[in-house]
Every structure is written in C-alpha cells, then in structure tokens.
Amino acid sequence: MPFSKVTTRVPKPYGNKYIINPSTLGEKIRNRRIILGLMQKDIAAIIGVCEDTITYWENNRANPQTKHLKKIRLFLKQKGCNF
User: Which entry of 3, 11, 22, 62 is 20 to 30 Å from 56 by CA?
Assistant: First the structure.
C-alpha cells in the first residue's frame, strides 16, 4: 500500500572466518570476537593474555590454562551469547 512503510533488517554476514558449528573453545572465542567486531588484541586485554595467545587458541594450537577459563566464560556469555 502506498501509505505503509515496510522495512527489513538483514544481519551483516560475518565472513569466511566465522565457523558455523564451532566445536572447540578456540573456535567459540573466534566466533564471539567476530560477532562483536573486536580484534584479537581487544580480547587479549579483556582476558589478560598477550595477542599471540589468542591466536594460538583460535587456531587450536594451544588450550587455555584453567586460570583464564573464568574470564573466557564471562566473555563468551556477555550480551546473550548462546555457546
């Protein structure tokens, strides 16, 4: 009808780095980072590790130490993350 406005919102595609079904903690960290539009250095500052550590986790070359799991869990759960 000419007097009604219809608007649609389409979510922005996340790109080819986004993993559809993440199975490891590193993949979940990467997906959450991509969704929030953050860089690895931003996540490193939040968790309290260096940027290289985030790279290792995301590429499944290393696993986080137990002392970092609490901050990782809080990062993954912020703003309604469903992992």
Answer: 11
